Amino acid sequence: MKRNKSSGRTGRPRSFDIDRALDRALQVFWRKGYEGTSLSDLTKAVGVNRPSLYAAFGDKEALFRKALDRYLNGPAAYTQEALKEPTARAVVERLLRGAADLNTAPRNPGGCLTVQGALACGEAGDSIRQELAAYRAAGEAALRRRFQRAKSEGDLPATVNPADLARYVATIVYGMAVEAAGGASRDKLQGIVEMALRTLPLRTKGDKFH
Predict the structure, then answer these.
(1) pLDDT confidence tier of residue 24, bands split at 50, 70 and 90
(2) What is the per-residue pLDDT across 67-121, written as a single tens digit (0 to 9) for each?
(3) Gap between the Cα atoms of 44 and 90, Å rounded
(4) What sign has the CA pseudo-torsion 34, 102, 186, 104?
(5) Chain segment 130-181, per-residue pLDDT in tens
(6) What is the reported pLDDT for 7?
(7) Residues 43-47: contacts with CB under 8 Å, at least 24 apart
(8) Contact (CB, 8 A) for 209 and 203
(9) CB of 202 within 8 A of CB of 88?
(10) Cβ burial, residue 16 (10 Å; 0-12/13-18/19+)
(11) Collapsing DSSP states into helix, strand and coil, what is residue 147?
């Protein structure tokens, strides 16, 4: 019998597309979380058998990390862009509105992968849980540094603690993800955004902090 030269030893289909496969795997992990996703879920979504999946990506944990990287540099890339905004208020507004859009976009599963991915992780998924917790901590630290800069520039009140503010904003962002995973609409999340912008100590045009 003539062997399909394009498939190689793993039997990978000629039409196998790594980027498309990662997108499909990302959707599964995003919807079901790391531990809730089975290898059968992944092979069905990607459209290859287990040997092909292992050959292309390694084990389930390695595939999740690749999917996470795709998520952070794709749908969630707005979080890094937000830090470049000129004022603390603009930073927070872009973060919160970006979260509302991401969490409720019809093309996306509800919620946030960095929150959903770690839910109900047992001992087998502990390394993933720790990695996602470290990512969230790094994001909060980056936000704290941005607020420290804003405070030194007079863009935040002298009484504001940048670490507390960063932690509070991060809590709102991740709380919105939990709400969205439970079915909250974009309008409901936008209501949270508007309330946060009204209550947080953020300078608007014409305000002066001393």
Answers:
(1) very high
(2) 999 999 999 999 999 999 999 999 999 999 999 999 999 999 988 998 877 665 5
(3) 42
(4) negative
(5) 889 899 999 999 999 999 999 999 999 999 999 999 999 999 999 999 999 8
(6) 41
(7) 46/21, 47/13, 47/16, 47/21
(8) yes
(9) yes
(10) middle
(11) helix
Cα 100 to Cα 111: distance, rounded to the nearest angstrom: 9
Q: Are 61 and 128 in contact (CB under 8 A)?
A: yes
Q: With the CA atoms of 7, 12, 16 and 18 taken in that order, what torsion angle do they form, in degrees rounded to the nearest 10?
A: -120
Give the length of the chain.
210
Residue 210: closest CA among 160, 165, 158, 161: 158
Which pTM was predicted? 0.83
Domains and CATH numbers, the chain: 18-71 (1.10.10.60), 77-199 (1.10.357.10)
User: What local confidence, expressed as pLDDT, does residue 117 receive?
Assistant: 72
Closest CA to 170 of 198, 139, 133, 127: 139
* DSSP symbol at 73: T
- Please state the φ and ψ torsions of residue 199, each to the nearest 5 degrees: -100, -25
